[in-house]
Specification:
The protein is α+β, with helices and mostly antiparallel strands and 557 residues long. It has helices at 2-41, 45-61, 65-89, 100-108, 123-130, 133-148, 162-175, 243-268, 278-282, 302-305, 316-327, 345-358, 360-369, and strands at residues 157-159, 183-187, 191-196, 218-223, 226-235, 306-308, 340-343, 378-381, 389-393, 398-403, 407-410, 420-433, 439-443, 467-472, 487-492, 496-503, 509-514, 517-519, 524-526, 530-539, 546-554. The longest helix is centred in the first third of the chain and has 40 residues, at 2-41. The radius of gyration is 30 Å and the shape is flat.
C-alpha cells in the first residue's frame, strides 16, 4: 500500500513536470513559427540574417526540450503501468457483508470536496485503510473529542496511525511551497547527516593505470528535533460526515498549517526551537557557539550574500543586469540542480512588468515558465516576504530533517459560538543550510534586506523561558523560589550583592537589569537605600518571554 502511495505521489510530480515542459515546447514552437513568418517577409540580406540568428537563438534556448518531453512521457507511462498493476492486485473489499449498501450510501452523501493525497488513492485502497483497527480507533477517538468539547478536554492527543503517515506527508508537501525545493530526509532520532562539498573532478588515466583517490570533502551536519504545531478550527458539523470524508478533512487540516509554517522556517527560522533559516544563516555575524566541528566551515556571508540595490527606478536590460549579478552570489557548490527564488506576489508582478519593458519575448517566457527572464530557477510566491525582496538559491544545499511520527491534539479552549473544535497538528522538523553561500537575499528597493521576521509566539512551553534558580547574595527570597512564580521580594542590609540567574534551557538568554541599568549575570549589584527592582527577562527563540522581578529593600545599618 505504501508503494502505491509513493507511486501516486511520483506520478503527480512527473505529470506536473511534463505539463511544464510541454508548455515550454509550445512556447518555442510559437516563437519559431512567428520568426519563420517574419523570414518569409524579409527582403534584404541583412533582415534575413537577423531573423535567422533569432531562430538559432531560440533553438539554443530551448535545446533538449524534445528529449525531456519524450523522457517524461515515457516515465509517466511507466508509472501508470506500475500503478495499474498494483491496483489490480488490491484485494476485493466487498467481502465484508455489512459494508456494501452502507458504504454506497455514505459515498453519495459526502459533504466535502475530494482533495488532498488521501483521495488520490484508489477507492479500494481508501476502503481498506478505513477498515484497519488503528485507523478506526483514530477516527472514533477524534469524533469523541469533538463531541466532548462542550465540557473541554485537556491533554488529549492522538498518534496518527503509521499507515496514514505517508498520506499526511504528501498533504504537507502539497501545502508547502518549499519542502520539495530543498533536500529532505526522514530520520527516527537525533542524527548526524553526512553531506559533501563540491563534487571533485574525476581524473583521466591509462586504462591499466592505478586509481587516483578523489578528494571528497565529507562533512556532517547535526539534526535535532523541533516541534511545529498548526492550530486549525474544525467545524463540528463534520462529525456527521462519512468516515472517509471525516478522515480526509482531518488529514487535510493537519498537514496544511504544518506545511505553511515549515516554509517560513526554511527562510527565516531562528535555529532555536525551530530549523535554522536561510536568511538567518546569512545574517550571522559570528560563528554560533553550537556550530558543529564536523559541519562545513562557517563563514561570514553578510557582505557577499545580503544585497541592497538601488535599482527600483531602472527598467529593462539595465535593471535585470544588476539584479542578475546580485543573485549570482548564490553558488551551486557542485550541484546541477536549479535554484528557486522566493518573493511575494507584488514583487513578482513588478518583475514581470519590468521584463515586458525589457523584451516582450522574455516576458512571455517568464510568464509561461514562472521564472526570471535570465534564469531557469522557479519563482515561489510567499506572502510573508517583504516587497522588492528576493530570497533564494540552491535548495539542494538546504537539509530539512523530518522526525518520524505525527500527532493530532485537541485544545481545551472551545469555540462555542462558532461551533468549532480547535485541533492542533504536530510534526517534528529540523533543518539548516549546509552551505550558506548557496543562498542570497536581495532587496532592489534601496532598503536593507529583512533578516528577522515574526513567528507565532510559543506561550505554552514555558520551560523554554523559565529559570531554575535565582539568587540575590545569600538573602532569602519571599516567597521561596519556584520557576512558575515571577515576583519576589527580599530585604538586605549590605549595599552590594552578587546576582545570579540560571535558565532551565541552555539556549535561553537571560537579560538582567537593576532598574534601567544592565547587569551581568553573576556580577555584584550596588543598591540604593530603599527599594530596588531587579528584573530577569528570559527569551528563547519564538517562545513568549518571561520576566521575573525581585524587589530588593536595602536598609543601611
Amino acid at each position: 500500500m505504501l508503494v502505491l502511495i509513493k507511486l501516486n505521489a511520483q506520478m503527480k510530480r512527473s505529470s506536473t513536470k511534463l505539463a511544464e515542459q510541454l508548455e515550454k515546447r509550445n512556447a518555442r514552437d510559437t516563437k519559431i513559427k512567428q520568426l519563420r513568418d517574419a523570414l518569409e517577409e524579409a527582403v534584404t540580406e541583412e533582415d534575413i540574417t537577423a531573423v535567422e540568428e533569432q531562430i538559432t537563438a531560440v533553438e539554443e534556448e530551448y535545446s533538449g526540450i524534445d528529449e525531456q518531453v519524450q523522457q517524461l512521457e515515457s516515465e509517466v507511462e511507466d508509472l501508470k503501468g506500475k500503478i495499474e498493476e498494483l491496483e489490480s492486485k488490491e484485494p476485493e473489499t466487498g467481502s465484508d457483508p455489512a459494508a456494501p449498501a452502507e458504504e454506497e450510501e455514505r459515498s453519495i452523501n459526502m459533504s466535502h470536496s475530494k482533495r488532498g493525497a488521501f483521495y488520490k488513492l484508489p477507492a479500494e485502497t481508501r476502503a481498506k485503510i478505513l477498515k484497519r483497527d488503528d485507523v478506526k480507533s483514530f477516527v472514533v477517538r477524534t469524533r469523541e473529542i469533538i463531541k466532548n468539547q462542550t465540557r473541554g478536554i485537556t491533554g488529549a492527543e492522538l498518534a496518527v496511525p503509521t499507515v496514514l503517515l505517508d498520506i499526511v506527508r504528501e498533504h504537507v508537501w502539497e501545502a508547502s511551497k518549499l519542502i520539495d525545493k530543498v533536500r529532505s530526509m526522514t530520520i527516527g532520532g537525533n542524527a548526524r547527516q553526512p553531506v559533501t562539498g563540491s563534487i571533485p573532478e574525476a581524473i583521466w588515466t591509462d586504462a591499466l593505470g592505478a586509481f587516483n583517490e578523489d578528494q571528497i570533502d565529507l562533512r556532517a551536519i547535526d539534526m535535532d528535533s523541533y516541534l511545529v504545531s498548526a492550530f486549525v478550527p474544525v467545524p463540528n458539523s463534520i462529525i456527521e460526515d462519512t468516515d472517509e470524508a471525516f478522515l480526509g478533512m482531518i488529514l487535510d487540516f493537519l498537514a496544511g498549517g504544518i506545511g505553511r509554517a515549515t516554509d517560513k522556517a526554511i527562510l527565516y527560522g531562528l535555529g532555536n526551537g525551530m530549523p535554522l533559516g536561510i536568511v538567518t544563516r546569512l545574517a550571522q555575524s559570528a560563528r554560533p557557539s553550537d556550530w558543529s566541528s564536523n559541519a562545513p566551515e562557517w563563514a561570514d556571508l553578510r557582505s557577499t550574500n545580503i544585497k541592497k540595490l538601488d535599482i527600483l527606478s531602472k527598467s529593462g536590460a539595465e535593471f535585470f543586469a544588476d539584479l542578475g549579478m546580485a543573485l549570482a552570489a548564490a553558488e551551486n557548490n557542485g550541484s546541477n540542480a536549479a535554484p528557486f527564488w522566493c518573493m511575494n506576489r507584488k514583487t513578482k508582478m513588478e518583475l514581470r512588468t519590468k521584463a515586458l519593458a525589457f523584451d516582450a519575448s522574455a516576458a512571455l517566457r517568464s510568464g509561461i515558465d514562472n521564472t526570471l527572464p535570465f534564469d531557469d530557477g522557479e519563482i515561489v510566491e510567499l506572502d510573508f516576504i517583504p516587497d522588492h525582496e528576493i530570497v533564494g538559491g540552491y535548495g539542494i544545499n538546504y537539509l530539512l530533517a523530518e522526525r518520524q511520527g505525527v500527532s493530532l491534539g485537541s485544545s481545551e479552549h472551545v469555540r462555542f459560538i462558532q461551533r468549532q473544535t480547535v485541533f492542533a497538528g504536530f510534526a517534528r522538523y529540523d533543518g539548516a543550510p549546509v552551505f550558506g553561500n548557496s543562498f542570497v537575499v536581495v532587496n532592489y528597493g534601496n532598503a536593507e534586506p529583512t533578516t528577522v521576521t515574526t513567528f507565532a509566539g510559543d506561550a505554552t512551553n514555558t520551560d523554554r523561558v523559565s529559570l531554575t534558580a535565582l539568587t540575590v547574595g545569600t538573602a532569602q527570597l519571599s516567597p521561596a523560589f519556584n520557576k512558575d512564580t515571577l515576583n519576589y521580594s527580599v530585604e538586605v542590609t549590605a549595599a552590594k550583592a552578587k546576582v545570579t540567574a540560571t535558565a532551565q534551557r541552555s539556549e535561553a538568554v537571560v537579560e538582567i537589569k537593576n532598574g534601567s541599568t544592565a547587569v551581568t549575570n553573576g556580577s555584584e549589584v550596588t543598591f540604593a537605600e530603599g527599594n530596588n527592582v531587579l528584573t530577569f527577562k528570559v527569551t528563547n527563540g519564538n517562545a513568549v518571554a518571561r520576566t521575573y522581578s525581585v524587589t530588593v529593600k536595602y536598609t543601611k545599618v
